[in-house]
Amino acid sequence: MVREWNFRDSNSINYISECCPNIEKLSCNNESFILCDDNVKSEELRTKTILKNWNNLKSITLYHGCGTNLILEAIKINCNRLEELILVNCSANDIGLIEIFKTCKGLKSLRLNKCCEISDQSLIVISNYCNSLINLDLRDCDKISDNGILALANSNFSKNLFSLYLEALNIKELSLLILAKNSTNLRELHLRRLDSVNDEIVAAFSIGSKSCLKRLNLHLCPKFIGWGIKEATEIKELSLFMQNIKLQVLDSICETCQSLEKFTLDITNYSFFSHNRDIINTISQLKNLKSLALFCGINFSTFEIYELKRRCKKLAQINC
């Protein structure tokens, strides 16, 4: 029984849509694959689209030319069971997206990647309508600013979030700090290429979700030094991609985050350790560590890797 389909060409689309009524997951990069008629009008979207055959669709991913307001309207009309929507480099704007939020009450996951026409207005509507949304992923959306982030922070929406991914957005420290303090149930946090992220913000996210936060990913946030992670005492997965880090900061992280099972450390400035034994002594504090990936310009000998495994008895995977 086919439940997932990735459209790559238009051959047999109508046949597939009729013969596989249980499709739950769809990805597409061409508007014409979904619309049966290139000249379809808004009032015809209920009948002139292959979506009419898939009432059980739960996940839709739209790429490039497929992510238009017309397609979003077809989804609104035909896919009221939608739980996940992913838009990548799409031309749709707030008008199309807001109608999805108002209609698809069960939406749980939203990812917007390089959607340059989506603005704060969409986030304001999300905060009012999307009570079921638990996963929010916003990347490289130029029109999203502090007003949108504050709308999310100043509502019950932020308390429902389990997973949050923010990358390359034009947002300032204050709005992030307010969002951090109100997001009390986060399990997973990704902050990437955000100039405003500092240790106070990371600590606020960690304290607010102290017993919940299990996965933390911090990549290329220039104001972040590392001290803020000390509050994430229950974290199990940590990924750091930084310009530099001091040994005493790393030592403090390893001393505090004793629940850590998976650790990735990627440093672009390779001059922060003088001896391999420093990193071995530091990492060896992580007694629950199972997976380690270390990219810091350090070459470990076979004996040193053995020493790491000996001291971290649960360590099964090393990439150095």
TrEMBL record:
GO biological process, one term: SCF-dependent proteasomal ubiquitin-dependent protein catabolic process
Top-level taxon of the source organism: Eukaryota
Pfam family membership, one: DUF7885
Gene3D superfamilies on file: Ribonuclease Inhibitor
Residue span, F-box/LRR-repeat protein 15-like leucin rich repeat domain: 78-222
One Gene Ontology cellular component annotation held by this UniProt entry: SCF ubiquitin ligase complex
This protein's name: F-box/LRR-repeat protein 15-like leucin rich repeat domain-containing protein
Annotated source species: Glomus cerebriforme
